[in-house]
Each structure stands twice: as C-alpha cells, then as structure tokens.
Specification:
Blueprint: E1 8-13, H1 16-19, E2 32-33, E3 36-37, H2 38-41, H3 44-49, H4 51-67, H5 74-85, E4 89-94, H6 100-104, E5 109-111, E6 114-120, E7 127-129, E8 139-140, E9 147-148, E10 150-153, H7 163-170, E11 175-179, H8 191-197, E12 201-206, E13 218-221, H9 224-232
Parallel strand pairs: 1-4, 1-11, 4-5, 11-12, 12-13
Antiparallel strand pairs: 2-3, 6-7, 6-10, 8-9
Helix pairs in contact: 5-9
Bound molecules: ligand BJW.
C-alpha cells in the first residue's frame, strides 16, 4: 500500500498483535484472566478488596514476560519500519501492556492501558521501572505519604492514559489503522468513529472481523505477522 497520499497516521494495536509472540489475548481466555476472574484482578474494586492477590497476579505476569524472553514479531517490526519511513506524523496507540513495540523500534507510542514493567506511586503518580519483580511490601517513599506501589495498569473504570494526545491526533488523522483488537473495550473501540468523523480512511487488520468491523472502510482478515507486513511493504 502507498502511504504517500497520507499526512497523519494513527495506528491502534491490541492483544492480537502480540499473540504470535506468545502472549495470550484477553477474549480467548473463556472469561478467565490467567485463571482469575476479571473483576478480581483488573478493577479498582478487586485491588481494594485483595491488594496482595492483585500485586502477585501482576508480579507473576512480569516473571512470565521476562523469563519467557518475549520478542517482537513481524507485525511489531513492520509498524516500526512504517514509522521510520513515513514522512508525516505517526502515532502508535497500543492497548497492550507489554513492551514489544519498543523492542521492535517504535518511537512515538502511547500505552493507553499502562505498562506491565512499571509500577506507580498512588499519591504522586511517579513511575518506577520494575524489570523483574516488585514485592507486595515494597513501599514508595517518593512523597510525604509512604504507600504501596501499585501496578501501572489501567483497570476497568479508570481513565485510560494519554487520551488528550490521542484525540488530538485522531482529530487530524487522514488514515486510521486498527490491528489485533476485538473492539469490545472503550474508549479505544470508539477511535475509528472519531477518525472517520474527520474524514480519515480506516482499515481493520484482525484474525477475524471484529465487533466493530462495519465502521471500517476496509477490513483485512489474517494473522498479524502476515497481514501487517503485507500492508506496510
Ligand atoms: C489476532 C491474532 C493474530 C488474535 N493476528 N489478530 C463506552 C464508552 C466509554 C467507556 C465504556 C463504554 N462502555 C463501557 C465502558 C467502560 C469500560 C469498557 O469498555 N467496558 C467494556 C467491557 C464494555 N472501559 C473502561 O473502563 C476504560 N475506562 C474508561 O472508559 O474510562 C472512562 C472514559 C469514558 C469516556 C471516554 C474516556 C474514558 C478502561 C479500560 C481498561 C482496559 N484494561 C484492560 C486490562 C489491562 C490489565 C491487564 O492486562 O491485566 O486492557 S481490559 C483488556 O482489554 C486489556 C486490553 O488492552 C483491552 C482490549 O483487549 P484487546 O486488545 O482488544 O484484546 P482481545 O483479546 O479482546 O482481542 C484480541 C483480538 O485479536 C481478537 O479479535 C482476535 O481475533 C485477534 N487476534 N490472534 C491478528 N495472530
């Protein structure tokens, strides 16, 4: 596909882009999140009810991610290449909490649902890198209210990150591409309509047509490692 006719591209990615790097998607888990109920581990209420369970849940995912040496796949690499060669403005918005886009070389990226390998002071919002593990007893002393670091993850009911920047880019986009997301979680699922409202051309790349496929101008079904490099080359 030729990208020369476009000036501002926004790409949205979801779990499907990392699936072939060995990271499980969400909706393919029969409602169970790594053997836990979603509301127990991915909501503020779950965290308040049992913080140790939630902290251990994310520590285990950090261990799995780091010890599994997960690597970017051809889809991550193709997106980094597109950003590199594209002349106009390029924003990559990912719902994924892994760092595979960065490992592939993507630069202008927003993790709207947070990052697995970071934790956050609940008072000051200061971020701490945790490449390996954080213990549940790990207190944060960055401000005058020492408290337990929480995972830097956007749970259901919390405000996604970087929305001002995302909506600003969407309001000027002339091409919107959605890759490997089921279109079931908002506000990300509404981005295609935002982009279309300003006249952007929109393309969905997914294993199967998503719940919101009818909003897109073009839908391409297939594995991310095949359809993304095909689109970008
Ligand atoms: C492949 C493939 C391969 C597989 N190749 N493809 C309406 C408006 C606004 C909000 C709401 C609303 N209605 C409801 C809400 C609230 C709620 C929500 O959306 N609920 C829905 C369940 C209905 N949203 C929120 O609470 C959000 N906050 C919020 O709305 O704040 C207020 C607000 C209001 C208005 C404007 C702005 C803000 C926060 C959402 C936080 C989501 N967090 C999670 C958990 C992260 C923590 C963790 O990992 O433990 O983020 S949920 C989970 O879903 C995760 C993902 O990022 C997210 C999206 O999932 P994704 O990426 O789409 O994965 P899957 O598994 O669903 O799909 C994978 C796809 O890939 C499938 O289609 C496969 O076919 C495909 N695939 N292999 C290509 N090889």
């Amino acid at each position: 596909m030729s990208f020369h006719q476009y000036k501002k591209i926004v790409v949205l990615t979801g779990a499907g882009v990392s699936a072939e790097s060995g990271i499980q998607t969400f909706r393919d888990t029969d409602g169970l999140w790594e053997n836990h109920k979603l509301e127990d581990v991915a909501t503020v209420e779950g965290y308040k009810k049992d913080p140790e369970l939630v902290l251990e849940f994310y520590n285990q995912r950090r261990r799995d991610f780091c010890s599994g040496h997960k690597k970017p796949n051809a889809a991550h690499l193709a997106l980094a290449e597109l950003e590199e060669k594209f002349d106009g403005e390029f924003l990559l918005v990912t719902q994924n909490i892994d760092n595979l886009h960065e490992q592939a070389g993507s630069k202008n990226i927003i993790h709207m649902h947070g990052e697995l390998l970071k934790s956050r002071c609940p008072t000051s919002n200061q971020l701490t890198e945790c490449f390996n593990d954080i213990e549940t007893s790990n207190f944060c002393h960055c401000c005058q209210y020492p408290s337990t670091l929480r995972p830097h993850i956007v749970w259901f009911g919390e405000m996604p990150l970087g929305l001002d920047i995302i909506y600003h880019h969407l309001s000027q986009a002339d091409l919107f591409i959605s890759i490997g997301t089921s279109g079931t979680v908002y506000p990300a699922a509404g981005f295609v309509e935002e982009a279309k409202s300003v006249g952007a051309f929109s393309i969905e790349l997914n294993l199967e047509a998503s719940e919101i496929h009818s909003h897109f101008d073009q839908v391409i079904c297939g594995k991310a490692t095949s359809v993304v490099p095909d689109l970008v080359k």
